[in-house]
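Weekly structure sync, notes
Attendees: PL (lead), two postdocs, one rotation student
Agenda item 3: pending single-chain targets
PL asked that the sequence for the first pending target be pasted directly into the notes so everyone works from the same version. It is reproduced below exactly as submitted, 561 residues in total.
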Amino acid sequence: LVMHVASFFVVALLVCFAIADNPYPEDLAPLSIGGSVGNGKIFYQQNNYFTFANVNNPITVKISYSSGSNYPANLCLNSYAANYPVSGVFLESTCPSGGFAVVSNNTKVGGGSLADGDDSTDDTVSAQVFVKPTSSAGFIVNLPDADAEQNFQIYWEGSQCTNPNQYPVGSNNQCIEIDDMAASQSILVGAGTWTYLRLTLPADISTTDNINDYKIIVNSTASDGIFTYVQEGYIPTEEWYLPIDNTSDDKDQTELVLLTPVTKNYGATYYVGVFNSNSGTRAINITGVAERCSNATLNFGFECKHQTTNTTGTVGGYRTFSATLSNGTASATINNGDSLSYDLSDDGYDEDYAYFKIINYPNFQTRPYYIRVSVANNDISDLSGAPAIFARLGGIPSAQACHYNMSTTGDVAHQLTLPVTDAIYNNGVQDDSNTWFVAVRLPSDFSIWVGVNCADTCDDSDHGSCYCNTQTCSAATAQQTQNLTVYYTIPTNLQDSAGACTCDSKKYDNSFDCSEKNNGNTAIYILLIAIGGFLVLTAGIAAPVYCWYASKKAKKYQEVM
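Predicted structure, written out during the meeting:
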């Protein structure tokens, strides 16, 4: 009996030590944040930002109302709201990946009933969002269906590992450490489980050490039941991971390429997650290869096609774009507010980017201010809408390395609002470290404009108007001759056009400047349909005639015989 008791005591101690070394995640501290939204007003959290450790993603967010009606609320939890805020207009597109949610609550705070309203709902809906370790997270909220302002409160539920070296990836979500990824290694992945590795890429110490892309090679594919995911800044999940270019399943292996992952000023941390969907354990080999252009001081980008010395070509280098509006003919140093158009829709541009470097920051005394950078699809019959656009401070961006990312489909325009703080302005002294770089995903036939809100004054306002918050931009800036700071503020009202002109007729709604009716190829389609119909009709008449003629000729031949 004594031996049994002693054995039990030893086991209990071991369990206690194991739990102490690998604890379970702790609940998030209760959240208390609220404000007012509705009638177009956008709520931005601008202080008391939240700190997250290594969160057990996703977390659950909820909302409640103390007045008004139960309207569905658009909500964004931006992990880096303090440094890289996003516009609250078209929030489902501007919000960082995984941070957007639609929530509602039909129970009024303090009891009682919420008023019925047009487009209100009886449903109570919570949602799940994904966050990264940060000390600068904040909420953006809007209520697009509400005609009047009403008060709201946000709540959350979730847990996190408070030790920065531990992550909630144990068999029961215990907090355990993650190994660093080696140049080449073998890992065992249990049945139905994940194994994670951390890839830390230091900032380039010189131009000759420039890492243009980093390739991750796994000797298994999805067809083998092995799925590989990558996320920047935190561990990926099956629902939340980076879009990876050049994913390949050739030769029974998966290759994932991180394009332009680091700069001379900024390093990066990526997390690789390998999931084994098989019923047995699998041994997996993973290799990492840092790839450099042959001339690291000159070339960069996809297949090293771009050159730093080319400042006028978007696909041969990058095109400089002035952030300061001025009179004159548009050039690499003058921005008169006009849009620039590029037809780079050929398949030969697949997986490449058109690059832009934002120069000549305005000397506005109030900072931060925000540079609007907008893109739209020139082909309005293309239902994919505006091309994906990425921005990065201090280096060349890509889908895997950026501070801003708008890549949703079906949008008329994508507009970034890039902040210029005192530190970024740097007394007007600009070098690559404090420069915003922009990349537009190719292939695409697109237009781009910087500084102004909408392109080409909405076709001279013939079919629509551009709104800077609740006032037309032309009125607010006296036809772009004064008070230009209006363009350089982050929108506070949903009426703001955010790059897409507000057209007078729905017939022009798919046109970013209201210059073209929605189906720009209608005449061509009608002509093709007419030609096709004519050919079908001709064939329908010709076939019976031919058969009759052939039959008659054959009968005549038989009579002669």
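Discussion points:
- The helical segments are 2-21, 91-94, 422-425, 456-461, 473-476, 522-560.
- Residues 522-560 form the longest helix (39 residues).
Action: rotation student to compare against the earlier draft before next sync.
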